[in-house]
Specification:
GO terms for molecular function: protein N-terminal-serine acetyltransferase activity; protein-N-terminal-alanine acetyltransferase activity. This is GNAT family N-acetyltransferase. It comes from Candidatus Faecivivens stercoripullorum. This protein is of the alpha+beta class and about 130 residues long. It has a single domain (about 5-129), classed as Gcn5-related N-acetyltransferase (GNAT) (Aminopeptidase, 3-Layer(aba) Sandwich), CATH 3.40.630. The protein has helices spanning about 50-65, 80-85, 120-129; strands at about 5-10, 15-30, 35-40, 70-75, 90-100, 110-115. It has a six-stranded mixed β-sheet. The termini are far apart.
């Protein structure tokens, strides 16, 4: 029985310190799709750790699990997340208006929905290896 969820720690090689995590969830064997996400300690953002982990997660999903599509999202305004997803070929697919409430400000935040098809990812492989 294959899992419908995978959780991966992002561990810095230098000191074996866990600095974040990434996941695949809501895996549909029927449709060959999955959702997922990534989080990274702020102090390690912008250093390439998240991009490397995100790329490995995508490779695992397509090559090991045989999925055909990954679905993701990001908070509207989080351009760093969108930029990272674009590196692998993700496309914007829609917006969930006022999906979340920001705990820090109490303001509502839209979620931008994104998706990546296996064949689109293959087109980006030379740039991401």
């Amino acid at each position: 029985q294959l899992s419908d969820r995978y959780e991966f720690a992002i561990v810095r090689k230098l000191d074996n310190c866990t600095i974040g995590g990434t996941s695949l969830n809501q895996i549909s064997r029927l449709h060959k799709t999955a959702g997922g996400g990534i989080w990274l300690n702020r102090k390690y953002q912008g250093m390439g750790y998240g991009t490397e982990a995100f790329g490995l997660r995508i490779r695992f999903a397509f090559e090991q699990l045989g999925l055909r599509k990954l679905e993701n999202g990001y908070f509207a305004g989080n351009q760093a997340s969108w930029k990272m997803q674009q590196k692998f070929g993700y496309k914007q697919e829609g917006i969930r208006r006022q999906k979340y409430i920001c705990p820090a400000t109490g303001e509502t935040v839209d979620e931008v929905l994104t998706g990546l098809l296996r064949e689109e990812w293959i087109d980006f492989l030379p740039e991401t290896i």
